[in-house]
Write a structure and sequence with these properties.
509 residues, alpha+beta, 13-stranded antiparallel β-sheet, 15 strands, 42% helix, 20% strand
Length: 509
């Protein structure tokens, strides 16, 4: 949503909360469990079954303690059940040894998969072809791990730099990007989309070498000298930024066979390229398998970027299928920190957006390069909602706001009133043809594996997240490998891999 007044910046944001409404810290289900336990206890005491009555009361209390109450921050906190389940699964993985992954000849991997991707990405399949405009494409078939087979197309984007663009053009591009997000809801087969911004501060040396290599020997000596001197006068570092946009389809919603589903997606790719281009993505193209493999290999070890850049200058292209772009080693047996190929990473996730209208500049801190990390990836996940579910969501928020419109002391809760007005406005927008999408943000940062570097990275990542419109966030403490790989440009949608137990223990909507 956007809001504009004459002479003022356009502001964006109409954030609806996804957590369940509470009264006195308990949800409606929580109150039902508690009051139901009390009622059954009273009945049991009347008929003399007092042991059963106490058991029912205790069940109601424990149900709230373990499954309803979020300990810590009311939004970012987690239930006891979710924490216990995570620890149990982490212990199970440690016993099985699956939190240590090693590739190569000395590994236990089959000969045809000696450098395969780990975990949920180990069973990726590539599907290649040519779309209706004659452009080649590569689709990634996520065959196992998710609830349904998925097909993902990843576009490499070359966004326009905003520093030299007029503000009205920036506002127009943001509006067009919102139009692309809205269009996802109109394709019922789309499971979600991910935009990944991968960035780093790199040494200027490879760029100088590239400029030197491109200087024509036939140019005047003075011109050659000025070009070389100008290159060496540049700053010692430059921003290396890559942007990827992945669209993920549910195969079962498209066709009966994977071949027919791929053909259907191929017909839709030109439309997505056109919409992304209008949103400022430059000339987006579907990434090849080697381009995705390069991004993955650099994510595992950032200094590979310089090595691959030097190879490209020497005319040695990078050729590797993404399905064989696994790490040399990957360990996620520690809390919060995972170690891979001689470096370390951590991931933080947004659990609630800023509760205000913002400009596009406010979240720049999430996407721009940061020299305090070896590399930083910000992934924004979009989950389109059908019109029916969007109306239900807006209505639920309004009902929850009305229920909590007064405080315990009987005073008016102004925040509840604002949420109610927001829900009403959203319903009116939906009636006018607007679309609703759930979204989330994850930020993965990579750094040296030393205690000092870990402390610096933690402090800097907190500063980034708290400076981006006061996001509510939490660090991912267990199963950090899954978090790391979900921010790669491979179309991994976290909710598609959520188990039934995770949904029960940590459900927010």
């Amino acid at each position: 949503m956007s809001d504009a007044t004459a002479g003022k910046r356009v502001k964006f944001g109409n954030w609806l909360p996804t957590t369940k409404g509470t009264l006195g810290g308990l949800t409606g289900i929580g109150w039902g469990m508690l009051l139901g336990g009390v009622l059954v206890m009273v009945v049991c005491l009347v008929v003399g079954w007092w042991p059963l009555g106490l058991v029912c009361l205790l069940a109601g209390l424990l149900g709230n303690v373990f499954f309803i109450i979020r300990w810590g921050d009311p939004i970012a906190g987690r239930t006891f059940a979710a924490r216990i389940w995570d620890r149990r699964m982490n212990t199970k993985r440690a016993r099985a040894g699956t939190n240590h992954y090693v590739t190569g000849l000395l590994s236990n991997l089959p000969n045809e998969s000696l450098s395969a991707l780990p975990g949920m990405l180990a069973d990726l399949e590539e599907i290649t072809g040519t779309d209706g405009e004659g452009e080649e494409y590569v689709l990634l078939h996520h065959r196992k791990g998710s609830r349904n087979p998925l097909l993902a197309a990843t576009f490499i984007c070359h966004p326009d730099g905003t520093e030299l663009l007029p503000q009205d053009r920036i506002d127009g591009q943001v509006s067009d990007f919102g139009g692309w997000i809205a269009s996802l809801s109109r394709d019922s087969a789309i499971e979600g989309a991910v935009v990944v911004v991968d960035s780093a501060q790199e040494s200027i040396a490879p760029l100088i070498a590239k400029i030197d290599s491109e200087v024509s020997p036939d140019a005047p000596a003075a011109a050659q000298r000025q070009l070389r001197e100008g290159a060496r006068a540049l700053s010692g570092t430059y921003a290396d930024v890559e942007v990827f946009a992945s669209v993920v389809w549910n195969v079962n919603e498209l066709a009966d066979t994977i071949e027919d589903a791929a053909a259907d997606i191929a017909a839709k790719l030109p439309n997505h390229r056109e919409k992304l281009a209008a949103a400022g993505a430059g000339g987006p193209v579907v990434a090849t398998s080697s381009e995705l493999a390069r991004a993955v290999r650099v994510a595992y070890r950032p200094d590979r970027a310089r090595e691959l850049g030097s190879d490209a200058l020497d005319g040695v292209p990078f050729r590797m299928p993404v399905t064989q772009a696994g790490p040399d080693e990957f360990h996620d047996d520690q809390r919060r920190i995972c170690y891979h190929d001689g470096v370390a990473s951590m991931t933080a996730m947004m659990v609630a957006p800023p509760q205000m209208h913002i400009t596009e500049e406010l979240m720049n801190v999430l996407f721009r390069p940061n020299g305090k990390f070896l590399r930083k990836r910000t992934a924004v996940f979009y989950r389109p909602l059908s019109q029916g579910k969007a109306f239900k969501t807006a209505k639920k928020v309004g009902v929850n706001a009305r229920r909590g419109s007064t405080t315990v002391t009987g005073e008016t809760d102004e925040f509840a009133k604002l949420r109610q007005e927001l829900a009403q406005k959203t319903q009116m927008d939906l009636m006018s043809g607007a679309a609703m999408s759930a979204f989330a943000i994850e930020v993965t940062v990579t750094f040296e594996p030393t205690p000092q570097a870990i402390r610096r990275a933690t402090t800097e990542l907190k500063a980034i997240l708290e400076g981006a419109g006061d996001l509510t966030y939490r660090f991912i403490e267990t199963d950090t490998a899954a978090a790391f790989h979900s921010t790669l440009p491979l179309g991994v949608l976290p909710w598609a891999y959520a188990t039934a137990m995770q949904t029960v223990t940590d459900r927010t909507d």
